[in-house]
């Protein structure tokens, strides 16, 4: 006999669901099975059903992935909202934020309320739950600096786990959640600790140059400038489908950097600990791909890190272009360009 909870979950599983509206590349793909879950209780109550689908993945805002074919497994689509204060004192506030909350809306809200730190991360598409997976970062700031804890359900065991910052194993655009088997963890909420006193991060060169002559700079000023820069250079996925930066900026040794600097005196790079981080966008532009279009997919005309869908194109065409760019960069610079976007179905 099925209990009422399990019967409800089974009745909520849909089949052959079109995912085009749920991915920012706007590519066609269908999920063999699709399950929307609207609370943590529903997630826990669905564990047995979920475990019957060894091939599964959790879909958030669909802003950092590329479907290259139909997904022959279970798509889990959590809708977990809510923001509450966990702890607050004169210096800081800790917020527990539901995984499905919109990231940019959170950044906007916290900045307006006088809770600071996230302003450099404005206008990054996606949900709060996706932020620790990628350890999202922009303009000299990474989300790992503000995460106190990540709560998630281990879908293999059914356990609720609480990951400390160290346990998240954050690295450049990486974390334990990204390294783990696809579909193992469903993040339910993220605990963020923000400062009530402005602590501006202006080391990113465009921000440093812009604010160099300003006598007083507020977090709101930084937020506004970041939004301006992103809107100027990066396409809105609603107008020109894309998944943001498609490639990671490669990290090379000092010796490799010096060798490249000899060959390409104008190469753009930044110190990264004991290494150097190369500007992948500059490399792609140098290789002649900026503004390139083929098969209705292309490299954005203003930001070469971004691949875009100019029409009714397939995910496989985007992947073919990405591989073409990577091969060219390898030939020209002898550097491996790593894909930042999760490719689903092209394994």
From TrEMBL:
Q: Which UniProt keywords apply?
A: Cell cycle, Cell division, Cell shape, Cell wall biogenesis/degradation, Cytoplasm, FAD, Flavoprotein, NADP, Oxidoreductase, Peptidoglycan synthesis
Family to which the UniProt record says this protein belongs: Belongs to the MurB family.
Source taxon at top rank? Bacteria
Q: What is the catalytic activity of this protein?
A: UDP-N-acetyl-alpha-D-muramate + NADP(+) = UDP-N-acetyl-3-O-(1-carboxyvinyl)-alpha-D-glucosamine + NADPH + H(+)
Q: Which Pfam family is one of those matched by this entry?
A: FAD_binding_4
Enzyme class, first EC level, given as a word: oxidoreductase
What's an example of a GO molecular-function annotation for this chain?
A: UDP-N-acetylmuramate dehydrogenase activity
Q: Which GO terms describe its cellular component?
A: cytosol
Question: Catalytic residues?
Answer: 173, 245, 340
- Please report the name of this protein according to its UniProt entry: UDP-N-acetylenolpyruvoylglucosamine reductase
- Protein's job: Cell wall formation.
| Pathway noted in the entry | Cell wall biogenesis; peptidoglycan biosynthesis
Q: What is its EC number?
A: 1.3.1.98
- Keyword Flavoprotein belongs to the record: yes
| Domain spans labelled FAD-binding PCMH-type | 25-197
Q: One GO BP annotation here? A: cell division
Localization per Swiss-Prot or TrEMBL: Cytoplasm
From the broadest rank down, the organism's phylogenetic lineage runs: Bacteria, Pseudomonadati, Pseudomonadota, Gammaproteobacteria, Oceanospirillales
Query: InterPro entries, from UniProt?
Result: FAD-bd_PCMH, FAD-bd_PCMH-like_sf, FAD-bd_PCMH_sub1, FAD-bd_PCMH_sub2, MurB, MurB_C, MurB_C_sf, Oxid_FAD_bind_N
Q: Which cofactor does it need?
A: FAD
């Amino acid at each position: 006999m099925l209990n009422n909870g399990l019967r409800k979950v089974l009745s909520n599983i849909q089949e052959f669901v079109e995912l085009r509206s749920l991915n920012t590349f706007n590519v066609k793909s269908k999920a063999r099975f699709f399950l929307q879950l609207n609370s943590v209780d529903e997630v826990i109550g669905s564990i047995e059903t979920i475990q019957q689908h060894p091939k599964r993945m959790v879909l958030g805002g669909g802003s950092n992935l590329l479907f290259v074919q139909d997904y022959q497994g279970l798509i889990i689509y959590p809708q977990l909202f809510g923001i509450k204060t966990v702890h607050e004192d004169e210096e800081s506030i800790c917020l527990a934020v539901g995984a499905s909350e919109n990231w940019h809306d959170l950044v906007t809200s916290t900045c307006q309320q006088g809770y600071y730190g996230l302003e450099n991360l404005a206008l990054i598409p996606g949900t709060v739950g996706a932020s620790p997976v990628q350890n999202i970062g922009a303009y000299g700031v990474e989300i790992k600096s503000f995460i106190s804890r990540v709560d998630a359900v281990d879908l293999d065991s059914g356990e609720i786990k609480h990951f400390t910052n160290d346990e998240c194993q954050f690295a450049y655009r990486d974390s334990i959640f990204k390294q783990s088997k696809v579909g193992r963890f469903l993040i339910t909420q993220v605990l963020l600790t923000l400062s009530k006193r402005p602590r501006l991060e202006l080391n990113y060169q465009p921000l440093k140059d812009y604010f160099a002559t300003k006598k007083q700079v507020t977090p709101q000023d930084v937020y506004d400038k970041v939004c301006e820069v992103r809107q100027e250079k990066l396409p809105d996925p609603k107008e020109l489908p894309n998944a943001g930066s498609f490639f990671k900026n490669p990290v090379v040794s000092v010796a490799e950097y010096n060798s490249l600097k000899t060959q390409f005196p104008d190469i753009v790079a930044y110190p990264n600990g004991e290494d150097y981080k190369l500007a992948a966008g500059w490399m792609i532009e140098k290789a002649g791909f900026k503004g390139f279009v083929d098969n209705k997919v292309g490299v954005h005309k203003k930001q070469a890190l971004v691949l875009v869908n100019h029409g009714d194109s397939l995910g496989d065409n985007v992947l073919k272009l990405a591989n073409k760019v990577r091969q060219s960069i390898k030939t020209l610079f002898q550097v491996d360009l790593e894909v930042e976007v999760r490719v689903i179905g092209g394994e």
